[in-house]
Design a protein that fits this description.
Layout lengths: L2 E2 L1 E3 L5 E2 L4 H9 L10 E2 L1 E4 L8 E2 L6 H6 L2 H5 L7 E8 L5 E3 L3 H10 L12 E5 L3 E7 L2 H9 L2 H7 L1 H23 L3 H15 L5 H12 L12 E6 L4 E4 L5 E13 L5 E4 L7 H7 L15 E4 L2 E7 L7 E6 L7 E4 L5 E14 L5 E4 L3 E4 L6 E17 L4
Antiparallel strand pairs: 1-6, 2-5, 3-4, 5-7, 7-13, 8-14, 9-12, 9-13, 10-11, 10-13, 15-16, 16-17, 17-22, 18-22, 19-20, 19-21, 19-22
Helix pairs in contact: 5-7, 6-7, 6-8
Bound molecules: zinc ion.
Zinc ion binds next to loops.
Keywords: Isomerase, Metal-binding, Zinc
Protein name: mannose-6-phosphate isomerase
Pfam family, one: PMI_typeI_cat
């Protein structure tokens, strides 16, 4: 059946019609009224308690619809283990890290008001438009060279701490990053002022991002994390996977995001919200890796589904399929999970049909919930234009 996503208006979202969230939501809901200067940041597709989707024909919450018959709708699970989103970003999101399951349980037990659930929160982001993100620490040699090349950073962090990255690897990096995160406001201000002066007429990507972040979040320590973390420029279709303990931030652009159902975030900057520095520093993985190695590549599902590209993270909670059909393909088979799935159409038109469901005419913006009793095989027919959709489901591949 068709569903309507839940729209979020967080401050960092793209405004009005420029938001991908609006572009897609409008095509799925003719009654949707767009306000020009309002941010439209996220479209949530799933049964999450903080923003469940609605059944399009009745307006009922997807969460209550599912709860009526978990067995035939989502294969007997208590609720969907994942949440699918579209994000449209004008202003950077906080630099953050997510705990693994064990740590999430500990943090939730100790600080239930801050860490509201005991679950982990791995995420995958797939770019819909040119997309900019910070992901993981850079290789140690790169961080060492970056920090050494700016007197302002040497003064802030201390040359002996910076040298530790060369001599002590991950432990040295932890010392150096801890020094950054625990520096007092006045020292951080001085360092940022010096770098801002230096980067005024610099046309490197790093300098450009530094200026943007400094304008949006004046004197936030997060802008100095730029020298530690990989700056990743993604093309539409490129993806990154954010495992537990990996620092990251989404900076600009539109993407599909899929994650486990959790809200557990430990923040490190670019936010007015609470920064839990001690838990952050003890949780991070300081090994570092190359920017190119952070791109998360899909594989073709199998020989019978040559146009289905599977993004399969190393966790059970979710996987994402991208189905991209060449113009000469007129019918195609979609695989449904025994726990149900959610499909978002990005472009093209088609008819969708299967056992136990009515035939649906779907198009760009359509969001379809496939219950577990539908399928396992669902047909796309009468396919027109370049058809692309994303499908989120339990990772039972
Ligand atoms: Zn995250």
């Amino acid at each position: 059946m068709e569903i309507l996503g839940d729209i979020k208006n967080y401050d960092w979202g793209k405004l009005g019609e420029s938001s991908e969230v609006v572009k897609l939501a409008k095509l799925n809901d003719s009654s949707f009224v767009v306000e020009n200067n309002k941010p439209y940041s996220e479209l949530w597709m799933g049964d999450h308690v903080s923003g469940p989707s609605k059944v399009k024909s009745t307006g009922e919450s997807l969460a209550s619809f599912i709860q009526k018959d978990c067995e035939s709708i989502i294969g007997g699970q208590p609720k969907l283990p994942f949440l699918l989103k579209v994000l449209s970003i004008r202003k950077a999101l906080s630099i953050q890290v997510h705990p693994n399951k064990e740590e999430a349980e500990r943090l939730h037990r100790l600080y239930p008001d801050v860490y509201k659930d005991p679950n982990h929160k791995p995420e995958i982001a797939i770019a819909l438009t040119p997309f900019l993100a910070l992901c993981d620490f850079r290789p140690h040699a790169e961080i060492y060279a970056q920090l050494k090349s700016h007197n302002e950073l040497v003064e802030l962090l201390g040359i002996s701490n910076i040298d530790l990255i060369k001599t002590n690897g991950a432990e040295g990096l932890k010392t150096c990053y801890s020094k950054l995160m625990k520096s007092d406001d006045a020292s951080i201000r001085k360092c940022i002022d010096g770098l801002a002066e230096k980067f005024k007429n610099d046309d490197s990507k790093l300098a450009e991002v530094f200026r943007t972040i400094q304008a949006d979040f004046p004197y936030d320590v997060g802008s100095l994390s730029l020298f530690f973390l990989n700056l990743i420029e993604m093309k539409p279709g490129d993806s990154i996977y954010l495992a537990a303990k990996i620092p990251h931030a989404y900076l600009f652009g539109d993407c599909i995001e899929c994650m486990s159902c959790s809200d557990n975030v430990v923040r490190a900057g670019l936010t007015p919200k609470f920064k839990d520095v001690e838990n952050l520093l003890s949780m991070l993985i300081y090994d570092g890796s190359k920017a190119d190695d952070k791109l998360f590549k899909p594989t073709v599902l199998d020989a019978s589904h040559p146009h289905t590209y599977l993004f399969k993270p190393p966790i059970d909670d979710f996987a994402v399929c991208k189905i991209e059909l060449p113009s000469d393909v007129n019918d195609y088979e979609v695989v449904n999970s025994k726990f149900g799935s959610i499909v978002l159409v990005i472009s093209g038109n088609a008819k969708l049909s299967g056992s136990g469901m009515e035939t649906l005419e779907i198009h760009r913006g359509s969001v379809i919930f496939l219950a577990s009793k539908v399928g396992p095989k669902v047909s796309l027919t009468d396919i027109e234009d370049d058809f692309i959709c994303y499908q989120a489901m339990f990772n039972n591949f």
